[in-house]
């Protein structure tokens, strides 16, 4: 177990961690939800003090934040020069792992921030691939892939999620991303239009899956007739699709969508 010390330390001696996942606002609009959150936290610290100490590790004559970047900003904003901290003797690998696990448990962390956190540790070779990372954090490899792939979406979607935390469901974001690949400028009109539709109409994952499936099968808006039939026997359930004439590429895409959906269904049974 890592040795730890509870201590009051000067904020001027604190440096940020390169592994933290949060996108920390610097100045900017006071109407930014992230800045408003820090203002609220600062007001609470003024009234009640800091309820939860930050976690740091020694970095020469300074202290590197392991957990608590926004608490440091809020404490500084409140006008305090010192802050309560737990000093742990984490090495580089332990600090990175703590940052990742901490990010997974933060309800208000958006998928882009989590993706950046994952990408940093992969770039640093703490884990050689997604499978190693997924095992270390106790998550499915598909989840890790979905999180990382949010960084490949239309840049307008990335910016909006960063600002508003509009969608947290990475599987829903995967469906939006698969509508169309981004171009060389990292934009996709279909992704952006579908994203806005999901936000404005509050579409569920199932509704977006139906949109994607009908576009794949017909290349146009769905009609009322269902293009599938389901038959059930004592020992089987049969599914038949009437796709019409389609090329092998579209056929493989349909098979992949069905396989993913079956995997999700089996997990829920």
What labels describe this entry?
269 residues; Conserved hypothetical protein from pyrococcus furiosus pfu- 392566-001, ParB domain; five-stranded mixed β-sheet; 7 strands; 14% strand; alpha/beta; two-stranded antiparallel ribbon
Question: What does the model show?
Answer:
The protein has helices at residues 33-48, 69-77, 92-104, 111-123, 130-137, 141-149, 155-164, 170-177, 189-201, 205-218, 248-268; strands at residues 4-10, 14-15, 54-59, 62-67, 82-88, 228-232, 237-241. The model has no long low-confidence stretch (mean pLDDT 84). Among the domains are: 4-97, Conserved hypothetical protein from pyrococcus furiosus pfu- 392566-001, ParB domain; 110-203. The strands form two sheets. A five-stranded mixed sheet has the order 1-5-3-4-2. The chain has a two-stranded antiparallel sheet with strand order 6-7. By secondary structure, the chain is an alpha/beta fold. β6 and β7 (237-241) form a beta hairpin. α1 (33-48) crosses α2 and α8 runs parallel beside α10 (205-218). It is elongated, with a radius of gyration of 23 Å. The chain has eleven helices and seven strands.
Q: Pick out the low-confidence regions.
A: none
Cα distance spanning the termini? 39 Å
On the 0-100 scale, what is the average pLDDT? Answer: 84
Q: Which second-level CATH architecture of the domain at 4-97 applies?
A: Alpha-Beta Complex
Q: What's the Cα radius of gyration?
A: 23 Å
* CATH domain fold name of the domain at 4-97: Conserved hypothetical protein from pyrococcus furiosus pfu- 392566-001, ParB domain
H and E string: EEHEEHEHHHHHHHHEEH
Choose one word for the global shape: elongated
% residues in beta strands: 5-15%
């Amino acid at each position: 177990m890592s040795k730890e010390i509870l201590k009051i330390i000067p904020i001027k001696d604190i440096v940020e961690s390169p592994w933290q996942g949060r996108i920390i606002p610097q100045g900017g609009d006071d109407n930014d939800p992230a800045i408003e959150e820090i203002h609220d936290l600062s007001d609470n610290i003024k009234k009640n003090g800091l309820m939860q100490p930050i976690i740091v590790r020694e970095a020469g004559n300074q202290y590197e934040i392991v957990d608590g970047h926004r608490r440091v900003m809020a404490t500084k904003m409140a006008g305090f020069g010192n802050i309560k901290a737990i000093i742990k003797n984490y090495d580089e690998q332990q600090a990175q792992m703590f940052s990742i696990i901490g990010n997974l448990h933060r309800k208000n962390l958006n998928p882009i921030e989590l993706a950046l956190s994952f990408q940093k540790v992969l770039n640093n070779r703490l884990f050689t691939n997604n499978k190693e990372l997924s095992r270390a954090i106790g998550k499915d490899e598909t989840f890790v892939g979905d999180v990382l792939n949010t960084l490949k979406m239309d840049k307008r979607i990335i910016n909006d999620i960063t600002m508003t935390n509009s969608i947290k469901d990475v599987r829903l974001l995967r469906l939006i991303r698969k509508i169309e690949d981004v171009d060389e400028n990292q934009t996709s009109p279909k992704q952006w239009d579908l994203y806005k539709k999901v936000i404005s109409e509050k579409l569920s994952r199932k509704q977006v899956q139906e949109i994607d499936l009908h576009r794949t099968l017909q290349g146009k808006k769905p009609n009322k007739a269902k293009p599938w039939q389901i038959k059930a026997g004592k020992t089987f359930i049969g599914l038949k699709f009437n796709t019409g004439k389609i090329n092998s590429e579209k056929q493989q895409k349909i098979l992949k969508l069905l396989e993913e959906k079956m995997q999700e269904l089996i997990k829920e049974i």
